[in-house]
Amino acid sequence: MEGQSQLLYRHDMVYQLPLTVTPLPRETFPSFFARLAAANGTDAISFAMDMGGSLKRVVHQDAEMVKLVGQLAGITDEEMTTLLSWTGEPLGDVRMQYRGEVFVSRAVRNPVVRGCLRCLAEQAAAPGVPLANMAMQGHWLCRGVDICITHQQPLVPLWTEGNPVRREDMGAHLRTLLPDLTSMTAKTECVAVSAYDAWLDKRLSENQDLTWLRTQTSFAGMTMCLALGEDILRHQSLTPNDRAAKAAGFGVISSGPDAIRATVRSLLRRDDGTLTISKSPLKSLSYTLVEAYPDSMEFDDFRQIIRDELMTFWPIAPGDTLLGQVVETRRFHTIASAAEETGLHKGLLQDILTAEGVFDPTQCQQTHPRTFDAEAYAAFLAEIPHLVPGSDIMTELSATETEFEALCAEGVLRPYLKTAKVLNRWRRADATALRETLTSRLRKKQASRNADTLLMTRRALGVRLTALIAAIQDGRLAAFRHDDQEGFHAIRVDRMDVEALIKTLPPDVLIDRPETKVISASVFGKQIGLVEPKYMVRLVATGHSPGTEITNSVTKRKQWSLAEDDIAAFHKRFTTTALLARKAGVHRRTITSQVQHHGTQPFSAGDEVFEGIYLLSDVQEITKTN
Length: 626
Known about the structure:
This protein is an alpha+beta fold. The protein folds into five domains: 9-186, no CATH class; 208-326, no CATH class; 332-386; 422-509, no CATH class; 517-625, no CATH class. Helix content is 44%, strand content 11%. The chain contains 31 helices and 25 strands. The strands form eleven sheets. It has a three-stranded antiparallel sheet with strand order 3-4-5. It has a three-stranded antiparallel sheet with strand order 16-18-17. It has a three-stranded antiparallel sheet with strand order 19-21-20. The longest helix has 18 residues, at 218-235. It is elongated. The N and C termini lie far apart (129 Å). Mean pLDDT is 90; it is low at 1-11.
């Protein structure tokens, strides 16, 4: 090998140097090379030239130079692999293999070279050549590392050099530091080792991680601890510094997704308790995930966790990007975004949504600005631009203003919007559906002279429009169309048919007839204290107490009802233990005990016993004692 030193080579054979050094814990390859040179009484540049190479080839980890250094030093392949792992091996232009993981190059390469002064001072004071003893440790390269765990000392800048080769000439730089090393060490102060410091040290040195961060890369973990920590400190009105920020961020991230989500939400919570719709409180997180490492997959889990939390209340529009991902579906609206979508003024839309119960004015708002569920109200908002005024509904129905007002009063027609501040608050489709339903039921026979409009029938016979319309729809009431009219106003019903219908209707569909107040037999049974109200129903059904059988307008089932006269007739003949107790002012159990003591039995007829109901004549002795 032409040009190579005879000191190192003989007959093309490589010999181990008589003076060599052993790799120290966490030492880098350039540091080891510098110590090997110092042990042999030379500097790194000259030593590399004597080997037939250059310091540049050493720094760039040229394969031949790495092999040659190992042979000259007499170290094992495993020891060399460890040296290189603490140094960092290039992977392309911007990545490095460092401690078995991939790091961004600038995370382990920096013009500012840091180190622990106490480590260097102790090594310099050891027996032998100081420069052959002083080792630069690989974890000092990692920008996520801030202290020396062993001495609890902060890492301090030792020298600054932009040129990578001159920067790695360790012996030259350390020789400059040696005279002042003792005085420099005396000025350093001990710092407390944080959980973050201990975590990263264990992870780099032993590949050991018992936290949630074991699922993430070291680089992503330490970077996110810093970013989240900076946002936490700002939220606490504290000036961010790297060590405090990393400790604060690690305290959250090490616990996993739930803790991260909760902290993100707390960062967005304002003093008034609302959640702000702003990226400002997440300044460092946003920069890290969106600007610094937008395409780095190792941050994807963090993006997803934070994005999922923000999507639970942030009003992101479809097509907008949130932490690098395009949002496909809107989950929440603000008043402003909904107003833009519907074309309404923001103040008016606020009134509409409040009237609809979207916003409860008595409750504190959850976000600032206020938001609401976009999916739940999507159909509602989509309908608003198509709403029409009440006059259009009257035209669609062919109804008079009085008929329209009556239909609204009974709830047959309801405005789509509850607030009266909006003129266009009706759905034309509702009027069209009502008209088509009714006119499709009209019979071809001409209306008789006794036929009236639905509104006139309501006034004359005191039956609600809802009952008349329901009867027409299900065929219980015949309806006809006036020859000269159209729509709702053209509908006619015969008075005799309506009078017959009324006899089958429950009292609650009648108006202006207070004397028709009734109650179902079942409800009355509950009121008089029966455990099983069915016995009251049976009492009426079997004719032992008066009542009327009607058809329930809702369930369409037959049921027994009691008018005031029917109730009075019951009380003249029957009673219950609850009624007796109320009258006597004693507890029901007292009456029950007395009934049992006298051997009084419930009313019965044939084989049927009406449990809980007694004849007044059978309990006379009990009523006398109370």
